Amino acid sequence: MNFADFYRQSIDDPQTFWANEARLIDWHKPFDQAMDYSRPPFTKWFVGGETNLCHNAVDRWVATRGDEPALIMVSTETDTEKVYSFRELQAEVMRMAAIMRSLGVTRGDRVLIYMPMIAEAAFAMLACARIGAIHSVVFGGFASNSLATRIDDAKPKLVISADAGSRGGKSVAYKPLLDQAIDIAQHKPAHVILVDRGLMPMERKAGRDIDYAAARERYLHADVPVTWLESNEMSYVLYTSGTTGKPKGVQRDVGGYAVALASSMRHIFCGKVGETYFSTSDIGWVVGHSYIVYGPLIAGMATIMYEGLPIRPDAGIWWRLVEKYKVTRMFSAPTAVRVLKKQPPEFMRKYDLSSLKALYLAGEPLDETTSEWIASALGVPVIDNYWQTETGWPILSVAKGVEDTPTRLGSPGMPMHGYKVKILNESTGAVCSANEKGVVVIEGPLPPGCMQTVYGDDARFVNTYWSNFASEQVYSTFDWGIRDQDGYYFILGRTDDVINVAGHRLGTREIEESISSHPNVSEVAVVGIEDKLKGQVAVAFAIPKNAEAIATTEGRLALEGEVMAVVDKSLGSVARPARVYFVTLLPKTRSGKLLRRSIQAICEGRDPGDLTTIEDPASLEQIRGVVKG
Ligand code: ATP
Ligand code: MG
Questions:
Q1: pLDDT score of 534 more than 90
Q2: 248 near 452, Cβ under 8 Å?
Q3: Deepest in the core among 265, 404, 482, 571, taking most CB within 10 A?
Q4: Is the pLDDT of residue 610 over 80?
Q5: Do 20-41+51-308 and 502-628 fold alike per CATH?
Q6: Which atom of ligand 1 is the closest one to the Cα of 384?
Q7: Residue 147: what pLDDT?
């Protein structure tokens, strides 16, 4: 089938389209109605149907593929590698579920998971899904304050955690951070299950803290049946990264999510039963939920869970795993590719990568240089995909499983089935013409898999996402974009990354793109800082490719001048940065997102804010240093 027809059907007749897609998963009880959009913008999917995420990810495959690999756990931090078959995974999930039940956790209760990338984290998520408890995974890098906010919002009955994580061979304490978070939080969870990895000593709180290994022994032969859930019951809450403000608790359903994942695994990621999928993300992010744990397993694939850095023991580690487990589809982020690009290319040639069919990248803009470099190094298509925690699966991409649509450099692709994407003029709300910049919005109903609401706050869901245009009620992504004459979309940054220079509104991302076109700039961040005369001015922090060029003051000034000239030429002098500073590192979150707000705060002499997930704090010191200098 051609994609255009496939897409059109999903928009013109969502009831029939999604009823068909729903056949990709198992239903305990068939649904009465595929879609209920009687109370916009809230959408219900597969009303009256009963299913279960854990059943579809695990039990469903036990009968036919019981001894085949399901979860491949690799840690280069603790030098461990273990393969769980579907049957073994089911047994572990039932043990975890039995422990949870013994603590009184039942359908609808929240369970907060604050764990490193260990197999028990996947068992915990799947065990929640199995018994109808609602998980809320909090990224293991978050510090006590961020964790406490999430505890108070989700109000979990139970927390599942571990003694420590590990990064670059160094243990990172979890338990003391958790204890502190529970101290700070208003809400006090009744119990904490602790996986003791033997990395760090732990203090235990009598009556509250439970040792996982001991409890597991008691439930070795547990047989916990699946709890069938109505499709619109909640499966989980996941907080957005908080790049642009207070994190929002994204609430997801059961049936719609399962169908969306099955559908995206088939049409976008082209995963086949029995193959191996490798996503390098973390279970603390949405990619980890959708494409480490649930998606691949629902598709009957083995999934690799990886704890460690991409360059340890050396830059060949990921490719060794691709060879060893015959990975067919791999998912990563541009930031990880940029890390690899700094390493000698031999590491990519050392392994047999012939099993690999495609590399998917998401999370931040994929620049052309990075994209071309990795595509030629691997010799496989690189498929950019654009989405958000809120949507749970790609909004823009190419669906190679439907039709071999060509990709276009710099573009994450076109709207995926079910997403009625439009670009609207920010002030008039009119639909933009081809190549005209506007806000990327989605017309309701959102397809299955997308957020149901903001957890516990329907009003915030409507006010935040659906109330940005007076002309019509549409979901705003808060990203700028354009659509070209052939229907390919380009993402131009976030709507709040806008600066106002003497009355001109400029996107920092556009200025960054312009600067990146200079041959001696490898990466750049642009922020707007206060200026008495103009309101704001742009300031750039660039990483030069060739550091020698700026070794002398003359060299530095020359490069600064050249960069300014590039901006003058492409965007005009209003966009010209007042200063171009050179650094070797830029502050980013662990998921690769530029911390523009923190850079801006430093430039304006303010507190850089919540930095618990910053990749490398030294980057901020550099910014402070160059700005002072
Ligand atoms: P918060 O919403 O709390 O500020 P966040 O937006 O960083 O946090 P995520 O949901 O993890 O949280 O990130 C989604 C955003 O990441 C998108 O809205 C977009 O800005 C960016 N993004 C994701 N994928 C791509 C891509 N392929 N190309 C360009 N930008 C992308
Ligand atoms: Mg966001």
A1: no
A2: no
A3: 265
A4: no
A5: no
A6: 27
A7: 92
pLDDT digit string, tens, across residues 392-449:
999 999 999 999 999 999 999 999 999 999 999 988 999 999 999 999 999 999 999 9
pLDDT at residue 589 greater than cutoff 90? no
Whether ligand 1 lies within 6 angstroms of the CB of 365 is answered as yes
Q: Determine whether the shortest distance from the Cβ of 241 to ligand 1 is under 6 A.
A: yes
Which ligand has its closest atom nearest to the C-alpha of 364? 1
Alpha-carbon distance 264 to 276, whole Å? 16
Average pLDDT along the chain: 95
Each residue of 136-189: pLDDT tens digit? Answer: 999 987 888 889 999 999 999 999 999 999 999 999 999 999 999 999 999 999
How many A from CA of 477 to the centre of ligand 2?
7
Q: Phi/psi zone of residue 320: left (φ > 0), alpha (ψ -120 to 50 degrees), beta?
A: alpha
Question: CA–CA separation, 525 vs 306, rounded Å?
Answer: 30
CATH number at 502-628: 3.30.300.30
Residues facing 507 on adjacent strands: 498
Place of tokens 């850079």: 599
Domain boundaries, the chain: 20-41+51-308, 502-628
* pLDDT for 614: 82
pLDDT of residue 243: 59
Give CA angle at 442 (513, 263), nearest 5°. Answer: 100
| Residue 145 alpha carbon to ligand 2 centre in Å | 20
DSSP assignment of 588-619 equals BBTTS-B-HHHHHHHHTT------TTBS-THH
The predicted pLDDT at position 244 comes to 58
The model's pTM: 0.91
Token pair for 414: 């076109």
C-alpha 22/C-alpha 50 separation (Å) is 12
Mutate-to-test residue for ligand 1 from 241, 391, 409, highest number of ligand atoms within 8 A of CB:
241
The angle, 0 to 180 degrees and rounded to 10, between the axes of the packed helices 553-571 and 508-516 is 120
CA 533 to chain CA centroid, Å, is 40
pLDDT over 70 (residue 205): yes
Q: How far apart are CA 144 and CA 170, in angstroms?
A: 19
For residue 359, the CA-to-ligand 1 centroid distance in Å is 19
The answer for residues whose C-beta is within 8 angstroms of residue 452's C-beta and 6 or more apart is: 42, 43, 232, 234, 251, 252, 253
Ligand 1 within 6 A of CB of 494: yes
Please state whether 308 falls in left (phi above 0), alpha (psi between -120 and 50) or beta.
left
Please calculate the CA angle 436-438-442 and round it to the nearest 5 degrees.
120
Q: Which residues have C-beta within 8 Å of that of residue 155, sequence separation ≥ 6? A: 110, 187
